[in-house]
Design a protein that fits this description.
single chain; 360 residues; globular; alpha/beta
Length: 360
């Protein structure tokens, strides 16, 4: 199938000419790269990528199509997708449609046929660059003007969070968890269901008194498409429930917990998205985890938090806990959606805290 010629223009002036697919509408977003080899369906449907142009560094994307079971949200959430090559003839007995069909159906602007490795090197030198996918006939100056006129999106968590509470139940029910939806992934909910938890998912701005009124056994603060400093409601919420219930914070949720304990959040520039080695300080074992972050805690010294995981080799904090308050924070994706599966056992620590509280 012949695709139209389109191009990416970065705010620093670089141009990458390729071919478009998905929506034909121009799109201006922050540009990030993801180094994952597999899991493109989980990535395009991850609410954390709302409002972002995602560059996949792996050269062939779409080769196993789109399945009905592997979504992390109801539909693709990202602002746009940039790949070296988009496969339109997938081979997978589970495939229901092609990647291109999925993105076109949901109006996602995409680009292929460019040097994504070179683009990634440029992104790494900057701090969250803005970029525009436009028709190739548009001049660079016109594209740059379009970028300047487009503000960086705000309230992304509000845009992806549920508007009303909803519930998932499991047949082997042992616990009830309230999940605060800052952009929660379906695989997180599935892992909790598999561990015997009924899960009530509530909007990100739900007051603490309403959450406590559910009389839950634990609370999960989900990841989302912003840093915790942009969503003070989550830090305020955690401060109100700290010590009353076991709490698990993932990504943005972990950042909110760290801020509440007085830790300092640092900007990572272009951020880290994709597979990355992580050291478990309890066992000294190095696991592979999936990260999706643009901020980090370089240290939690001077707080009441104990680090449990660090990045290799950078040594910034990727996990912490407070056993007294029954709090766990994890910066990476322990639900393994997509894999690897090295860190699935971390949900067991949250379950154990609820068990101990139940038995106290």
């Amino acid at each position: 199938m012949k695709r139209p010629e389109r191009k990416l223009v970065l705010e620093s002036g670089e141009e990458f000419i390729g071919v478009g697919f998905g929506s034909a509408a121009p799109k201006v977003c922050e540009v990030v790269f993801n180094t994952s080899v597999v899991g493109y369906q989980e990535i395009i449907s991850d609410p954390c990528y709302a409002g972002k142009l995602v560059v996949m560094t792996y050269p062939l994307i779409g080769n196993y199509g789109i399945t009905n079971e592997d979504y992390e949200s109801k539909s693709p959430m990202l602002g746009g997708l940039i790949v070296r090559e988009c496969c339109d003839t997938p081979s997978n007995f589970r495939a229901a449609k092609t990647l291109e069909e999925e993105l076109e159906e949901h109006g996602i602007t995409c680009l292929s046929g460019i040097d994504t490795r070179l683009l990634t090197k440029i992104i790494r030198k900057g701090k969250k660059p803005m970029g525009a996918i436009v028709d190739s006939s548009l001049s660079r100056d016109e594209a740059l003007q379009l970028i300047r006129e487009t503000p960086r999106p705000k309230d992304l968590v509000r845009s992806v969070s549920c508007k009303k509470r909803w519930v998932t139940r499991t047949s082997n029910h042992r616990f009830h968890v309230v999940a605060v939806d800052c952009g929660i992934k379906y695989s997180v909910i599935r892992r909790l269901n598999e561990a015997g938890c009924n899960v009530t998912i509530v909007p990100f701005n739900t007051p603490a008194k309403d959450i406590l009124a559910f009389n839950p056994d634990g609370v999960l603060l989900s990841d989302g498409p912003a840093c915790a400093q942009e969503v003070p409601e989550i830090t305020t919420l955690f401060a109100a429930i700290k010590g009353k219930l076991p709490v698990l914070g993932l990504g943005l949720g972990m950042e909110a917990i760290g801020l509440a304990y007085g830790a300092k959040l640092s900007d990572m520039g272009c951020g880290v998205h994709g597979d990355h080695p992580v050291r478990d300080l309890a066992t000294n074992r190095i696991n592979i985890a999936v990260l999706g972050q643009s901020h980090c805690f370089k240290s939690v010294e001077g707080t009441q938090l104990e680090p449990t995981h660090t990045a290799v080799p950078e040594k910034y904090v990727l996990g912490f806990r407070n056993l007294t308050d029954k709090v766990i924070g994890i910066q990476f994706h322990p639900e393994s959606g997509p894999g690897p599966y090295d860190n699935l056992g971390l949900f067991d620590n949250f379950i154990k805290m609820m068990e101990d509280r139940d038995n106290a």
